[in-house]
Amino acid sequence: MCGIVGYIGNNAVAEELFAGLKNLEYRGYDSAGIALNDNAKIEVFKASGKLANLDAVLQKNHVEKYVSHMGIGHIRWATHGAPTIENAHPHLSNDGNLVLVHNGIIENYKELRQELQNKGVVFHSQTDTEAAVHLFAEEYKKCGSLEEAVRNSLPKLKGAFAFVIMHHNEPDKIIAVRKNAPLIIGSGQDENFVASDIPALLGKVSQIIHLDDDEMAIVQKDKVVVKDIHGHILNKKLEKVDMQADVISKCGYAHFMLKEICEQPAILRKVWQKHIQNQQIVTDDAKIAVNWDKVKKVVIVACGTSLHAAMVAKKVWEEWLHLPVQIEAASEFIYQTNLLDENSLVIGVSQSGETADTITALKLAQKFQAQIMVLTNRIDSSIVRYASSVVPLDAGVEISVAATKSYMAQLAAFYWFGLLMAQKMNKISASDMAEKLQNLMQMPEKIEEILSHQEYIESVAQKLAHHSAVVYMARGFNLPTAYEAALKLKEISYINANAYPAGELKHGPIALLDENMPVLALFEQGQTAAKLLSNCEEAKARHAPVVGIGGRKASDIFDDYIETPEVEACFSPLLMCVPIQLLAYFAAKTLNREIDQPRNLAKSVTVE
Ligand code: F6R
Q1: CA 302 to ligand 1: nearest atom
Q2: pTM recorded for the entire structure
């Protein structure tokens, strides 16, 4: 969501901050700003919209003329208040001395605001963040120390936060503090950084410190001290940065999304190599601490694309394991009459590992003593704190806001983990296991075949792009693929797309169909195909353009048909997600959309 960068050192501060923010751009934002602790006073520069606008402000103000060895920067994804300059961070205290940036939400900001206003404090924005600035500033007036002012104020703040704060009277330090929002310190030679995420620091430092909840870092040019909430010094480990700079390069592709779609065969190969050996599923048992004898029920919680991957898992696992699997949108799970206990395995799935809805759902599951596992692409993220078992997705950093390769990696994890469960629960024969593994191993090559048909898929997408709405439909294992197809198309092309179980069409949505409403049907082998074809006939009879996607074309009724290699139905979601990603990508490209950073969206959604 929002992104934070802080720098203290000898380099041009504004440049360092800007470069860091640029590397966080992919997270999605709608305003940006930096503050410099200049000799004369704190200087703040802000702009609504993209970083190019902030760059123009910096140039106009000849930012290079300011003498500063430290500064903080922020990109904001609006929650409380529109993406205006007033609401953009950094926020400054009324005396102009204390300045901060914030990620997260201050839940009790209204009460704090009222309290401070009663004392005569004037507010200038609609943000929740501003309450914190004035709170810290009021406290500073009493104690005269930034560190103490922040520490004394923290108990009054409810919600989630990562703050990075400077005071003009203390020009040798930046204070960084967190609770339920990520923050890292980058350690360099005579310079140190603060950031909300590693990409901000790529190419800058090779070692970082992960701050944990209720920890505060006092960051100086030549040292970093981390303390707990009571002011006791902690002995924090420096960790090596485990990320290459080329993850934030498009490597010749027009967009990160296309690059990431094309990376999928390589990701699958890597995952299979790690987890399939000698006709068995292997894994690091230290990280998977599930008591298999106790598992009587599996519940998977997730949001968005991750939720669609979970829906595939339900279908596949119920077939393979004959074990009921419950799927819940994490944001709704918390309102359920939860029938969880220590015999439940609750699995949270999150690419970013920072999704507030999913984290809240897992916290709830903890209360019921359920066993908790997470599947995440970021093993350094907040979500791992709530699980006894962690499965890394190994997709590599995903930059495009629209999830593609992480979806593939989630599916891959669900497939191998399903087989692992089958192995542990004695629910699979050696020959069945061998056959399933064989199927999985063939997937990368089959995906490459689909990727080689990009030109044709683009031509189909170009036709779709002329419509303002489309319908996806499927039966069986690919119903979740249809949901994912509709989500992908909506989020990056802004074409209204809905997905239905094909059998449901005649119970209402068929009223939508005419020559302006294309219907896209996802075919798989087996019992569903004949009925799905009938549903296509029904659509055709209403003059809807009909596009088929799947194995060999079984009829001439299709206006277009994207052929995919034939595979057993239960494996087809691994293949079918690729053409639907490409359709969304090329439709958005036709419409000249901002593909990697669609409007209103953020890469990690850290608010509920
Ligand atoms: C869609 C998309 C979102 C995310 C959702 C959950 O392309 O990216 O729907 O899937 O916000 O995010 P994670 O997986 O990070 O919890």
Answers
A1: 16
A2: 0.87
